[in-house]
Write a structure and sequence with these properties.
By secondary structure, the protein is mostly helical. It is built from 17 helices and three strands. Bound molecules: s-citryldethia Coenzyme A (SDX). InterPro entries: Citrate_synth-like_lrg_a-sub (IPR016142), Citrate_synth-like_sm_a-sub (IPR016143), Citrate_synthase (IPR002020), Citrate_synthase_AS (IPR019810), Citrate_synthase_bac-typ (IPR024176), Citrate_synthase_sf (IPR036969), Citrate_synthase_typ-I (IPR010953).
Length: 391
């Protein structure tokens, strides 16, 4: 339109940040955490050990791991007044809405870990967040079903403790299946970090202004919530439920290819991977194993596998290099573990907290400047004010 700027299409931005935490080769489907392939970590490590790796850069010795776990256990409870904070929410509030609010509220409680110029403060903030996220997540679920909050039981390992707080109740002893706890731990591990994704970039941008670390993580939770990002696992299960039967798959494939239809194949495609997301392969194998070990025959898994087969043979998906991502199978496992759909993205947030914190600490510990993305202005050129009688 008249007066709009035109701009040089040759304008390029090389804005990128340096990091030593995670490497992704999107063309070849490679994901390394501090140099270790995600497939090997998923097979041989556990979530807290991977947290240590992401935070400190090396796998821990047995003594280091014992001390790390002990320190995390010191922070699994939340301030008792946080419990009253929940009373401000509607019972039917989405747990991700509650997570945004409650994690942000931690910045009003823990002043002794917010002097970000002090590495000890940053370390305590990191331990507090890793330790308290499962507690807050379980509280958001208990609140939504009107059951009493469960205190953490530090005699249990990280993931079993989370399941204890999710599904335990004060009237009976917890009976956490080792199969389910191990699968839960693998889910947290596979979500731990993923380089400069939208939510991690949000945390880094918020952190670059030297904002309170708990508030920065709350910003990451908000960014993760969207169905294009962490909300996709919940959207995948809703999509598979809507498809309902393998006979309906072709209709949904056609819709996903239709430019005029906003429907996207949830759990497919990625900003970086133009090959299989290596986490999706591990997740698919875990889905088979968990359902078999639990004796569950979920037709949704059959629909997902058939959908994957059809899509990977379809020229649209092949040409656009659209492959299953981390979210495609995770929802099926979470459903088998008894996790309600509304908690799927919360689980993603619990797992990703260590990645957010590792990137935040890496930036804050080094030399950094406040983030300030630039723009390509395409609005009006300068013009004089027009009084209302002349408009
Ligand atoms: C996560 O960044 C990260 O690392 C994120 C994450 C992490 O660990 O933090 O890996 C987690 O967020 C995984 C992504 C979860 N989201 C979904 O599964 C939602 C469904 N996926 C799409 O919304 C999409 O693939 C995105 C959002 C993931 C990526 O979108 P882009 O950047 O537009 O993808 P693209 O550039 O590769 O798209 C190429 C083409 C486009 O069409 P054209 O403009 O070329 O005609 O493929 C189309 C897209 O419209 N396309 C799809 C599609 N994904 C992309 N068409 C149908 N179904 C899809 N799922």
């Amino acid at each position: 339109a008249e007066g709009y700027f035109t701009f040089d299409p040759g304008f390029t931005s090389t804005a990128a940040c340096e990091s030593q935490i995670t490497f992704i080769d999107g063309a070849n489907g490679v994901l390394l955490h501090r140099g270790y392939p995600i497939e090997q970590l998923a097979e041989h490590s556990d979530y807290l050990e991977t947290c240590y790796l992401l935070l400190y850069g090396e796998l821990p010795t047995a003594e280091q791991k014992t001390e790390f776990v002990r320190t995390v256990h010191q922070h699994t409870m939340v301030h008792e007044q946080i419990r009253t904070f929940f009373n401000g929410f509607r019972r039917d509030a989405h747990p991700m809405a509650i997570m945004c609010g409650v994690v942000g509220a931690l910045s009003a409680f823990y002043h002794d870990s917010t002097d970000i110029s002090d590495q000890n403060h940053r370390t305590v903030a990191a331990y507090r967040l890793i330790a308290k996220m499962p507690t807050i997540a379980a509280m958001s679920y208990k609140f939504s079903i009107g059951q009493p909050f469960m205190y953490p039981d530090n005699s249990l390992d990280y993931s079993a403790n989370f399941l204890h707080m999710m599904f335990g109740n004060p009237c009976e002893p917890s009976n956490i299946s080792p199969v389910i706890a191990r699968a839960m731990d693998k889910i947290f591990l596979l979500h731990a970090d993923h380089e400069q994704n939208a939510s991690t970039s949000t945390v880094r941008l918020a952190g670059s202004s030297q904002a309170n670390p708990f508030a920065c993580i709350a910003a990451g939770i908000a960014a993760l919530w969207g169905p294009s990002h962490g909300g996709a696992n919940e959207a995948v299960v809703k999509m598979l439920e809507e498809i309902g039967d393998v006979s309906n798959i072709d209709e949904y494939i056609a819709r996903a290819k239709d430019k005029d239809d906003p429907f996207r194949l949830m759990g497919f495609g990625h900003r970086v991977y133009k090959n299989f997301d290596p986490r999706a392969k591990v997740m698919k194998q875990a889905a088979d194993e968990v359902l078999a070990e639990l004796g569950i025959n979920d037709p949704m898994l059959d629909i997902a596998k058939r959908l994957e087969e059809i899509a990977l043979e379809d020229a649209y998906f092949v040409d656009k290099k659209l492959y299953p991502n981390v979210d495609f199978y995770s929802g099926i496992i979470l459903k088998a573990l008894g996790i309600p759909t509304t908690m799927f993205t919360v689980i993603f947030a619990v797992g990703r907290t260590v990645g957010w914190i590792a990137h935040w600490n890496e930036m804050i510990s080094g030399s950094y400047r406040i983030g300030r993305p630039r723009q390509l202005y395409t609005g009006y050129s300068e013009r004089d004010f027009v009084t209302i009688d002349k408009r």
